[in-house]
């Protein structure tokens, strides 16, 4: 249709691939939150293990788990909304 290589990339390929890229980035963020919680290397997982599990403070452990669930749900919700918005173009 008369477009050069960069116009095809900018106008067709990137907009078509962007919802998949954003969805993959969302999954990566959720995985990173889960891995940091399981590793216990100074993050929320470390707080849950040191103060909740090892000191038998169930309320601290439950609070950290609730914060992690809300964080993951929020990231997933924002990512899904962004993908839906980009996909309708």
Task: Describe, in plain words, how this protein is organized in 3D.
The protein has 89 residues and is mostly helical. It has one domain. 84% of the residues lie in helices and 0% in strands. The chain has helices at 5-39, 44-53, 58-87. The mean pLDDT is 88.
Short description:
The chain has 89 residues and is mainly alpha-helical. It has helices spanning 5-39, 44-53, 58-87.
Estimated helix fraction: over 70%
Radius of gyration: 20 Å
Instruction: Measure the end-to-end span.
Output: 20 Å
Shape field: elongated
Give the count of structural domains.
1
Structural class: mainly alpha
From N to C, what is the helix and strand string?
HHH
Low-confidence stretches: none
Strand content: under 5%
Average pLDDT metric = 88
- Discrete helix count: 3
Biggest pleated sheet: none
Number of E-type strands: 0
Q: What tags apply to this protein structure?
A:
single chain, about 90 residues, mainly alpha, 3 helices
Layout of SSEs?
Layout: H1 5-39, H2 44-53, H3 58-87
Helix pairs in contact: 1-3, 2-3
